[in-house]
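Batch 3, record 17
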Amino acid sequence: MKINRRKLLSILGISPALLTGSPLLGDQTKKKVSASAVGVKLETLNPKGSPPAIQLIPMAPRLDSLDGKTVYLVSDGFAGADRFLEQIRIWFTKNMPSVNTVYRLKAGGLADDDPKLWAEIKAKGNAMIMAIGH
Amino acid sequence: MGFPTAPMVTIAFKELALSNAAGRGMPLERICFTPHPLTNKTDEQMYACLDGNDPVSGKPLMKEVVEALTKPLAAEEKKTGTITPTIGPPTYTDTADNLQRYYADNGMTDYMPIILPMQEKVDAMLKGTSHHPDEVVGKMSAAPGAFPDWSFTVKQVAVNAVMAGAQPEFFPVILAIAATGVTSLFSSTSSFARMVVVNGPIRDQIKMNSGIGAMGPFNDANATIGRAWTLLSKNLAASGMPGQTYMGTQGNGFNYNNICFPETEDKLPAGWIPLHVQKGFKADESVVSIFTGWSMNDIAWFCPLPLHEVIKGWLTHFFSTSVGAATLLLDPVVANDIKAHGFDSKEAYSEWLATNSKTPGWLYWQTRQNELKQAQAGVEPYASYLKMGDAEIPVSRFWRRPRPGAPADAKPTSSIEIIVLGGETNTYWSAGDFSYTASASVDKWR
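Prediction for the assembled complex:
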């Protein structure tokens, strides 16, 4: 079968200019490079930006025990968190049956705040277990 | 929040969770760790994790969870006050080789050699703008909401621009990119990429390449502006720290240069307008526009169908992390062919594509669990869709609903962006899952 090389190259996305015999490389004349001054010390600048100050937040007081308490099981919405929290509910049922559990899905994306849910937990619950990530 | 909390995090996110808790003011937060990943485990396997140990502490996991909620607080856990994080000394002094090593070893580069940012080079870079070196340019976070915003000045951006090898005349473009506050190294397990498109007179003024090889390593401005975005994202926002502020499981090669190019404005088909004009800027303004996605295909399909139909076919069947947005980079040859088929504007073609591209059955059901349940219960039109098998279901993925709060009469818009780019050496077009993110004025930073 006769093959049209120009067409073949075109199909392959290669320039037919390659058939003309034009030089592929430019002038490769060697240029002298000045030797770097070995051992000379330089002063350079720090490229970092400015992080915000960190306000330390005291942790909330802990409970004496979970007996008779309501623990919210909160998902951040990642796949599988709901199933994992269901297993935690089952674990409490089997191992600490006096604990009341409530499942909730946090509103918004991973990093979004959900003040409505926090207010609900504060009003109706005693603690939260939150499943984060994958 | 005011009530005891036990966060449960999979072990793969240990560094991220601990550093994020510290950065948010609770360095001793009682985080309980599980094996990773959990998403692919059965219910029984998940329960077995609860009966096992925390892989970090080695203690029984659920005992640790209960203790996190009930063990009295230590004095350190009740501490208040302010911590000022340190970013190191203002300057470093050493030999050139040692400094190259130091910047790389401390995560301040892309692990390719940098131009060492000596004062005289930074001063020269600062001559590329009229703005004061101490002026605050903006804020940037490795992932908004998840990590705190860092702020940065004109001078701090200039240090990074020098490191990337940029010329002072490129500096307003780099400042505009920084001013968007968008990191090029967004923290997600899905390995995001960014793209930056330059429009307006600045393209020619700094001799950017929008012709042959525009997205490749063939132009000073295209190369170094794109690289500068990655370096400044690392250094000005603490982005790109693997395990802490970067979690892309495989990473993304686009992150080296962020697909930086100018639109081929001089070869736009008659009646088509440049990207920045589409986004509300004047034609004689210089603008950067940022896109977010993951992947790109480079395609020429020599077949009897016209190009606009071939692209529609690709859109129907392409699949990626984001299946609801696309950006097309059309060589001028392709754009003019599409125009010749009656599409008098980018918008007209974009809307035609959004209307006419459908969704193959195999893909439709992967992203619509609720509809699948309804289909199985006989609810229409889903039940009929399910009977179609792998055939194309007449639902487009590329219409975007009006944002919450939009006027009541706001209509859906096409999520397909179109940019003209290339050197007209063939009928190629590139396309991928990128979506438009933001634009910023370059002129403001001259």
